[in-house]
Specification:
Number of strands: 6
Order of helices and strands: HHHEHEHHHEEEEH
Strand content: 5-15%
Radius of gyration: 20 Å
Helix content: 25-40%
Amino acid sequence: HPLEEIVVPEIRPDDLDDLGPVALGIIDPQDMWEQLTESGLQAAAIQAYQAAITFVDHLVGQVLNSVADSNGGDDTAIVIWSDHGYHLGEKLHLRKFTLWERSTRVPLLLKVPGTTEPGSTFEEPVSLLDLAPTVRDICGAEAHIEQDGVSLFELLDTPSRAAERPPITVWGEHLSVRTATHRLIRYGNGEMELYDSIADPDEFTNLIGTPEAAGLVSELERHLPAQ
């Protein structure tokens, strides 16, 4: 990743103006992004992060190739996911621990012989809670305890079911729900943020307080647990 080709995330000076005090208190308490910006090292930090991701991609490729070349390659299922995401300057933040898109979205890939097609995608957001039931189905096993998720194979057959149970992210007393079109965040003190994930994928504009927000908040908030 040549340094001169690194793309630094778009930063808007007013990006934090529509956030409440709880959200503002979450943002980069160690001022890491500000230090990188002042030192001129933000591109180098992003370069290092991308280099690490490229290395992981390379190792995943080695695993996939080794499985494909093995005697059981045609009968081996592979599920890949990761720890949660990382801000590289979005929202003037350089770390994890937020309820925005950059921190809550993770890679999730499945290779299941006879079921998935190489390169195919599923557009509806799903939850990592669905991993255990999915692996259970792949292995033909039974669940010995009640599980909150559902098998992704059920959702592949009926994508509309995914829209009925959008993924929830919980961090302490703070909650977020993400549908295919919107994200609602509700902090422990009642503060809220609402984003249009299609028109505003960088979540620059908090829609709370706008005419379009009221109905959407009611619709999305019903998915959040009471506590």
